[in-house]
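Many introductory courses stop at the sequence. We go one step further.
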Amino acid sequence: MTTIRLTRMGRKKQPFYRVAVTDSRKRRDGGWIELIGWYNPMTKEQKIDEDRLNYWIGVGAQMSDRVKKITGK
């Protein structure tokens, strides 16, 4: 199953996340199919490509709980 979830980047105690489309069987920071945005929890900034997000949801990808909360969907 395809999942839209966060992959962690950044440094220790300064997290930064990429919003990635990946296979649900992969590890958190494992390979991804497509990067569709990013999220910075320190400043609450985010940028997500809505067109690609809607495309992947349309073809059956499931969003993680955190991504649902960030996008408001």
